[in-house]
Amino acid sequence: MTMNLMQGKAARFVPIVLGVLALVFAAVAAMFVGKAGDLEISLAEAQASASKAQQDAQAAKKKSDDALKAANAKIAALEADRAEAEKLKLLLASVEPQITPALEAASRVRVGKPDARAAGLVGLGLIGQVAHGTKHEASLQTLDRALAIDPANCAAIHAVNLGGAKKIDVTPECAALLPAPAPAAAPAASPAPAKDAKPADAKPAEAKPAADAKPAAEAKPAAPAAAAAAPAKN
Predict the structure, then answer these.
(1) Residue 91 is part of which domain span?
(2) For the chain, what is the domain count?
(3) For the chain, what is the HEC assignment?
(4) Mean pLDDT, the chain, as a whole number?
(5) Each residue of 152-199: pLDDT tens digit?
(6) Would 97 be classed as within a structural domain?
(7) Residue 75 included in any domain
(8) Cα 117 to Cα 115: distance, rounded to the nearest angstrom
(9) pTM of the entire structure?
(10) Span 127-143, average pLDDT
């Protein structure tokens, strides 16, 4: 009898226990499913951030590559221009001995205007400066000879000033031949001192003694005394 009762009670508790276990397993499963969902969301966000960072890095790399290519292209263009300028210098240096006699002879002709006679020497001086540098002594001497014939020759004045050996005043008409230099940047304004601040080195104003003003006041009666002396002489 007792065994039957115990078996009956156990049969009633088994479904309850199984139900509780099922609920526990369901709660645990739900918890893991929620965590798995959060992990998937975090993983997706991390993947999106990594993809965006990779795209930004690629864009920055492309931008830097483009800037580097542009800089290299500019350098190559400048190098080509410099090489062409060097070739022109060599060509001018090669023809300089050939044209020098003709230009020298043209400057010695006494007939004609001074500017026309000086033009040959100016051209010869400029060719020498281009071929040998702005400080080329022979070229500067040639330009000085041109200025002796035509002191107002603007090209010769500018060329001599570029040499730096001496400075010649440039007239406004000559200054218009070359572009004006870029204006210098204005210096930063210094902060204004505070109104209430007093300089440390300032000394208090010294009051003048009253005795300094007395001689001037005492000197005034001298005029009436002179006027009184004048009738006495009459």
Answers:
(1) 87-175
(2) 1
(3) CHHHHHHHHHHHHHHHHHHHHHHHHHHHHHHHHHHHHHHHHHHHHHHHHHHHHHHHHHHHHHHHHHHHHHHHHHHHHHHHHHHHHHHHHHHHHHHHHHHHHHHHHHHHCCCCCHHHHHHHHHHHHHHHHHHHCCCCHHHHHHHHHHHHHCCCCHHHHHHHHHHCCCCCCCCHHHHCCCCCCCCCCCCCCCCCCCCCCCCCCCCCCCCCCHHHHHHHHHCCCHHHHHHHHHHHHC
(4) 73
(5) 889 889 999 988 888 988 888 888 878 766 665 555 555 555 454 454
(6) yes
(7) no
(8) 5
(9) 0.45
(10) 89
Q: Please give the structure tokens belonging to residue 223.
A: 């005029």
Distance in angstroms (rounded) separating the CA atoms of residues 134 and 126: 8
Residue 31 located in a structural domain: no
Q: What is the pLDDT of residues 32-45, one digit of tens each?
A: 776 777 777 888 88
